[in-house]
Description:
Two copies of one chain form a homodimer. The first copy, chain A, has 14 helices and nine strands.
Amino acid sequence: MIGFVGLGAMGMGMxxxxxxxxxxxxxxxxxxxxxxxxxxxxxxxVRSAVAAAEGSEALIITVVNAEQAQDVLFGSGAAAAALPxxxxxxxxxxxxxEFARETASxxxxxxxxxxxxxxxxxxxRAAEGKLTIxxxxxxxxxxxTEPILAAMAEKVYRLGDECGHGSTVKMINQLLAxxxxxxxxxxxxxxxxxxxxxxxxxxxxxxxAGSSWMFQNRVPHMLAGDFTPLSAVEIFVKDLGIVxxxxxxxxxxxxxxxxxxQLYLMxxxxxxxxxxxxAVVRIFERMAGVEVRSEP
Amino acid sequence: MIGFVGLGAMGMGMxxxxxxxxxxxxxxxxxxxxxxxxxxxxxxxVRSAVAAAEGSEALIITVVNAEQAQDVLFGSGAAAAALPxxxxxxxxxxxxxEFARETASxxxxxxxxxxxxxxxxxxxRAAEGKLTIxxxxxxxxxxxTEPILAAMAEKVYRLGDECGHGSTVKMINQLLAxxxxxxxxxxxxxxxxxxxxxxxxxxxxxxxAGSSWMFQNRVPHMLAGDFTPLSAVEIFVKDLGIVxxxxxxxxxxxxxxxxxxQLYLMxxxxxxxxxxxxAVVRIFERMAGVEVRSEP
Lengths: 296, 296
């Protein structure tokens, strides 16, 4: 039996991937509609984090941030106390590495294991069971959860025997991803203002040394003017916030991450926080009176 | 007959590619040693820009910046006046789009054509005749120079009938390339400071959404601690300077390009201006007392 807390865009896909792989999964979310949807997909609906944890060999947590994860395990959720001895908490939320380390230590004191398992790949790959997982934790926890991770992920990176390493690598990935999307927005809007054709600019840069994974992936959203949130502006307000908070704590200056974070905050301030992260381009568009759109 | 001015790391490879393709090429550089090397590779050595221009159907200019190009054509070089009527100036230097437009107009008044042809790909691809060319200019100039461009480049993007468009696209490419190298440095050094293994970090990010062309290409230099200049810090001091100057002129704010430019200036201030651009990581290394190196 597996417990699952957090049936959002990523969690729902992951939980239903587990059901499809033959696991019995108890799913809980604050939003009752998500729980109902999960039950219709073959999962078992439960009404609390405690109920998800009771009798489960593993409890997978995909809530949005550290505060919620903390609350699920030790606060109002009280799930840690409900897990059977030897149970494994699989923490998938993007959190500060220090939070992952501290949480693992606290669970260990309760006779529980933890894996620090940030995920990457987006909602579509989550639904297909084809995520990338950046995992660290004790080898016995890996042995216990190997088939569970395999059902959710196409690629599992094992990044060490201690919790925290997974979150560190994920944090660095988010730093770069966040900077690259903001840079793509700045560059495309600047190019259009300077007289370039947006579609041509996209095609040439995509095949040149200025390209990035995010440039190739997000600029088409800008060209189409389609800001349907596949991953929202507020995710980078949060994730670059984690980056900068960690930088402050370990005394590491991050001028590019800080500048990019300000751009996502500008987008959020302009009411775009729930739009796709590529909507950061609209800040430049509004300031400079241009539009990064290609002809249909 | 082709004239060629500027036999540096890029120009030498391009000029010898032309010789190899069967063109007769007169080469000039301020540095006599470079001219001698070119003569040994089968080119014709000349002692001035005027001599390179005289009787040439095309004059290729690969000097380092707009000031030098200006001087070659209209200043002490006086090459524009020496070109035969209908000759084409092929301007390959990375310059502000406005400079390319103005120069084309000035040459046109003298009965000459110009192509705005910034190049990309590095010295190794220049030597192989496999550059990427971002070209704009009048169609007749393209017809006249088609076999010349084909001998130097694997890929020729035609970006419009007016000079300036090529330089705009190149400028945007340099904005992104410069930001991505600086972001790679910031991210790798931060990751190591936060406890990640540098080699593992490189491998995971290379295959994740945080990757960029520059991340994949430059981080190996950091991991090896090999800052032999394939492209130097001072190139981005210059090229992001062009980006920011243009931004100022057309009133476009560029927070990420500006932050990255400051990092290259920090590297230059620390005496690293002639090292590889990936040496920008050493600024972070020195500040934070870490080293982004993998075991050999």
